[in-house]
Write a structure and sequence with these properties.
four-stranded antiparallel sheet, 4 helices, 8 strands, 34% helix, globular
């Protein structure tokens, strides 16, 4: 897997910033097998997982979707909500029961614009998450599709 550590909300945001952000959240409890989002659909929310595991997948023409990463407790689930056109770039499914904080994306974007310090900190969280997920997806896709024994 990736050598990049999973970014944590608690290390990138101050206690005051976390408290302000939590105003835009609500706790959710999702059963195993719940589809949280689908590739290409509007990205209207995101989550910080408290417990459980979610897999990220991408469509592969002619076959079933390929799992490209796993999101665990303490991690951010979803980044497409931050970048226009605000559409999911992958799908996500709860592999176990998931308890999370769900955030309304538009409210958080407004808060980020109004509070530059919070916007910068959340931008760092999303950026670090994207970097880790990109590396993880590359490794996973090479595992799935590189010719066996090719050294890739």
């Amino acid at each position: 897997m990736s050598s990049l550590a999973s970014p944590r909300l608690t290390t990138l945001l101050s206690a005051d910033q976390r408290a302000r952000l939590m105003v835009c959240s609500r706790p959710v409890d999702l059963p195993e097998g719940t589809r949280l989002f689908e590739e290409g659909y509007p990205a209207l929310r995101f989550w910080i997982l408290r417990t459980g595991t979610v897999t990220l997948d991408v469509s592969v023409p002619g076959t079933r979707s390929a799992v490209i990463d796993t999101v665990n407790a303490g991690e951010l689930l979803g980044w497409s909500w931050l970048f226009a056109p605000y559409r999911w770039h992958s799908g996500a499914e709860a592999m176990t029961r998931v308890r999370a904080y769900e955030f309304e994306a538009m409210a958080v974007r407004r808060m980020m614009n109004a509070e530059p310090d919070l916007g910068s900190a959340l931008g760092q969280l999303v950026g670090q998450t994207l970097a880790r997920r990109l590396v993880s997806a590359q490794v996973r896709l090479l595992d799935l599709y590189a010719p066996h024994g090719s050294g890739l």
